[in-house]
Amino acid sequence: MSMFDSEEQSSSSRSTEIHSTWNTSTAHYTENLYVMPPRAESLEETMKTLLLAIPRRAIPDGRFTISRVPAFIRDAHEDLYQPRMVPIGPYHNNGEKFSTMEKHKHRYLRDFLERNRQVDIDTYIDAMHSLKDHARNYYTENISLSDDKLVQMLLFDGCFILELALKLENDQQDSFCLAEWDHKTLFSDLLLVENQIPFFILEKLYAISKGINDTRESPVDSDLKSLVVNNLFVTKSSLVNGPWDGPINHLLHLYHKISLPTPEITIPSSAQRQITSRTIPSATELLHIGFQLRKQGSINDSSVTLKFNVIKIPQLIIDSTSQTLLTNLLAFEHGLEVMNRRWTGLMVMMNCLIKNKSDYEILQDRGIVINLLPSEDEMFQFFSQLSKQLTCDFRYHYYSDLFKKVSLKCEGMFRKNQELIRLRDYLDDPWALIWFLSLVFTVLLSVVQAAFAVLTYYRERSK
């Protein structure tokens, strides 16, 4: 046997030993034997694996979905986007701090079921099971809850909202939210952009409680919206009877739809859009140019209007509740078409008007802005943070037509003021003043002479 044969046999023996050890091992080698790592996946294989891992979800109709607030917006005021009292929906449903609230939800479910004892809980559970997939698709993030947990959450949260509205509608005393602070906090939580469930869940639960099978052929939709608006919204609007055309996706969507009236301005179509002024002067500058600023109703009853040189602006009350509501309305409007971003347009205007403390004092003196926050500095900081959240085209927004009209008036009034200033500067020269007065005297003398000549002519003819 040669040396090479001996080495080959030895190598074969070691190979057999290693192979034997691998077969007897359950997962790994344990006797200091080196194992080659598995072959690394190619880029193509890695990409295919990632694509296969993406769940296939149907995209709901419409642009309104229940989404998370983007990080660049949330970071400024994270507390304004999180519920303080009642979590609704899956995004904030796992906090230990809401354990007491869960007990209230259980009690409200019982009270809601007792309103119609002819319908048992199985009917509601079956209805939620039939809608669970549709509801899951309303959230932009994948919901990790199991089907049963999701159905349970929809049932508890939906019945809680309905029972709360019904208790308030019927003036039923409840120890849960008797304090005014609790009321404001609770209602504020119900209008958080991340704290929502689909409105069709409320419609289905409400219809079942009324013994109605098909909500499309009944007034249940209008009744439910009226119930919610009249009892769950902090600010009562003069538009509680509409407009409610089209589907409603959740409570914040409903509030947004009725919160501001139709503006007294022309909203151009996409084909008629023109580039307009990016901004308008501040409140101080507008007064200096010759505009007047006046209060016009409340924020929920009026729009900003311009008539002659008078700009009328609805009153804006800034407190802890309106802070939360405004930030969430602006976040919600990120998913809307430009000309439906009514609150964004209003905040664009306020951002232009308030540049410093004197601007704020002008608006405050006229009752346009009411500050109920602890300090003026906190109010300024709030408006400053809001301005960073205004992700819109400043040349084309809800009030861009009004901006254009103000800008044109500013140009005309500026030219007029410049002419008056030049005349004033010219008359500051004594010799120029003497020449001007002599010119005026000459013109007046010519007029008197002409009038005297005419009178003399008619007098001679009469003789």
Structure description:
By secondary structure, the protein is mainly alpha-helical. It has four domains: 3-46, no CATH class; 71-259, no CATH class; 272-412, no CATH class; 429-462. It has 17 helices and four strands. Strands 1, 2, 3 and 4 form a four-stranded mixed sheet that branches. Helix 5 (121-136) crosses helix 6 (147-169), helix 5 (121-136) packs antiparallel against helix 8 (199-209) and helix 13 (342-353) packs across helix 15 (376-389). The N and C termini lie far apart (165 Å). Mean pLDDT is 78; it is low at 1-31, 237-241 and 269-273. Residues 1-20 are annotated as: Disordered.
Give the secondary structure arrangement, pairings included.
Layout lengths: L2 H22 L18 H11 L17 H4 L24 H15 L7 H16 L10 H23 L10 H10 L9 H11 L10 H13 L18 H9 L23 H7 L2 E7 L6 E3 L2 E9 L1 H14 L8 H12 L3 H9 L3 E3 L4 H14 L10 H28 L2 H33 L1
Parallel strand pairs: 1-3, 3-4
Antiparallel strand pairs: 2-3
Helix pairs in contact: 4-6, 5-6, 5-8, 6-8, 6-9, 13-15
